[in-house]
């Protein structure tokens, strides 16, 4: 195993990723930032200098479990205090499993200002994958707004509520194409000939097999990704031309144009447009195919262990939209989450147990009387709390994420829920209200896949199971940036949709004095 050292400087720069110029956050001048490429067992060291001048920063290594290093998880407010402007902070952690991961800012809404990148962890020397390929490529998909994250954040926090609306572009590997002739675009801000917005070209050699690692870090949209004419197993089409690769919004009735890249067969020129029109998007509200795709994906036997056949605890999380003091918020079981002022791990280290509320949030909701299919009229107002769930060490926990109608009639959204510090088995998906008695009998306990982020489809539920075997305090939240957004002073000022999972017994196992003091905190 090796040590891989990265020196990163994070700062604001003017860039035009979709031809429209705005301030974006770069790492060493780039967005997406540099890829981390390592092998299982390596230690990653990132020396991060915060040159944002007036803004804090923290970076989360999405999918890396941080076994025995929970303080390196990069979740500001949960595992660390933010890195202050001008400071350098050193992240150091082991990548313990091969796979495709992402990293992104976990402070405010900086992720959607461009602070993200990919992590690729290969097998150790001498070991081989269960499938063969010639080349390995990573592609990150993202959606892109022209308004600054501050304007968006301020809108989300005001009364009346100002929604962020649909993004202007979809970026494929950091590049998109906004129509500079659109009405109302100020002259000089949009330059269709800027080299920064030339479509991303993925060049392949005919007859070779490519592994594509496709990650999405969208702020709002769920995407459908396709490569025209390819069934995504092998590069096997007519090699005399190029093809489109496109990413399209599917979860919302969106005005955002499709993202386009060029799938380039060598030796065709990578800028030559394919001769056919780009693929069209599926109907946005056609949930059926997405649900059946979710259901169809099974683990390759022998590579992922089946889950424990029973669980020790079941937590049902009803996802609703509510109001708190007139603000629009998301909540779980009618409780909307606030971050404490002192990150949990630091509170533990210094024994500051008054730093967060001690009564844990509810494990369920009023199943019998809650109608998930219409606008919530009973519990319009949610309460707020910074309490965390406490999971006993080495227990098996089921979480059922139950979707519901939002505050608008006939509307339920897609939520990608992400668990830090663990992988989970996705044991079931369903439509309508989860049936505590019958649905668990239909769980796939034979060959479910393991993930760390999973979709909860509109009006549906998703069941996941995991072992609480990684001592620490871990965020569990909807990965939509504006649903997760945290306002000043560490409070979720709006749309908070997040829960922290914490194990007291877990933390006792992890000798508390091992918890490192991370960055200068005002405790
Ligand atoms: Cu990728 Cu807490 O996020």
From TrEMBL:
GO cellular component, one term: nucleus
Domain of life of the native organism: Eukaryota
GO terms for MF: copper ion binding; DNA binding; oxidoreductase activity; protein dimerization activity
UniProt keyword Signal, yes or no: yes
Keyword Iron attached: no
Subcellular location: Nucleus
Keywords, ordered alphabetically: DNA-binding, Glycoprotein, Nucleus, Signal, Transcription, Transcription regulation
Family named by the database record: Belongs to the multicopper oxidase family.
UniProt name for this protein: L-ascorbate oxidase
UniProt source species: Sesamum angolense
């Amino acid at each position: 195993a090796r040590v891989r050292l990265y020196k990163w400087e994070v700062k604001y720069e003017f860039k035009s990723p979709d031809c429209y110029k705005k301030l974006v956050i770069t790492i060493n001048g780039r967005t997406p930032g540099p890829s981390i490429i390592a092998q299982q067992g390596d230690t990653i060291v990132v020396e991060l200098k915060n040159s944002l001048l007036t803004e804090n920063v923290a970076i989360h290594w999405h999918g890396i479990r941080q076994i025995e290093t929970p303080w390196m998880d990069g979740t500001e407010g949960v595992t660390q205090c933010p890195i202050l402007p001008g400071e350098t902070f050193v992240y150091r952690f082991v990548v313990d499993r091969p796979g495709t991961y992402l990293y992104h800012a976990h402070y405010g809404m900086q992720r959607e200002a461009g602070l993200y990148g990919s992590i690729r962890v290969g097998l150790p020397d001498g070991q081989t994958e269960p499938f063969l390929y010639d080349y390995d490529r990573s592609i990150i998909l993202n959606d892109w707004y022209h308004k600054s994250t501050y304007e968006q954040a301020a809108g989300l926090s005001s009364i009346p509520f100002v929604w962020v609306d649909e993004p202007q572009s979809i970026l494929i590997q950091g590049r998109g194409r906004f129509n500079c002739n659109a009405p109302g675009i100020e002259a000089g801000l949009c330059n269709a000939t800027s080299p920064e917005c030339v479509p991303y070209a993925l060049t392949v050699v005919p007859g070779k097999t490519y592994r594509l690692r496709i990650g999405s870090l969208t702020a709002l949209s769920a995407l459908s990704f396709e490569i025209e004419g390819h069934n995504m197993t092998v590069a096997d089409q007519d090699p005399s031309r190029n093809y489109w690769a496109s990413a399209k919004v599917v979860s919302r009735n969106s005005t955002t144009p499709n993202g386009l890249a060029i799938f380039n067969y060598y030796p065709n020129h990578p800028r030559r447009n394919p001769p056919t029109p780009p693929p069209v998007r599926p109907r946005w509200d056609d949930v059926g195919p997405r649900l059946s795709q979710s259901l169809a994906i099974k683990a390759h036997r022998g590579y992922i262990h089946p889950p424990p056949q029973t669980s020790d605890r079941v937590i049902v999380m009803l996802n609703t939209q509510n109001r708190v003091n007139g603000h629009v918020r998301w909540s779980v079981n009618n409780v909307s989450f606030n971050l404490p002022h002192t990150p949990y791990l630091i509170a533990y280290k210094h024994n500051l147990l008054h730093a967060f509320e001690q009564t844990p949030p509810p494990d369920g909701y009023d199943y019998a009387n809650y109608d998930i299919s219409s606008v919530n009229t009973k519990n319009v107002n949610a309460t707020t709390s910074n309490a965390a769930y406490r999971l006993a060490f080495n227990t098996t926990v089921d979480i059922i994420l139950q979707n519901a109608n939002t505050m608008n009639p006939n509307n339920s959204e897609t939520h990608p829920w992400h668990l830090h510090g663990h992988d989970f088995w996705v044991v079931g998906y369903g439509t309508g209200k989860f049936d505590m008695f019958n649905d668990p009998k239909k769980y796939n306990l034979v060959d479910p896949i393991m993930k760390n982020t999973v979709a909860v489809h509109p009006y549906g539920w998703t069941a996941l199971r995991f072992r609480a075997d990684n001592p620490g305090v871990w965020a569990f939240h909807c990965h939509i940036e504006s649903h997760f957004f945290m306002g000043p002073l560490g409070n979720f000022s709006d749309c908070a949709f997040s829960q922290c999972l914490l194990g007291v017994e877990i933390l006792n196992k992890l000798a508390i004095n091992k918890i490192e003091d991370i960055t200068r905190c005002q405790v």
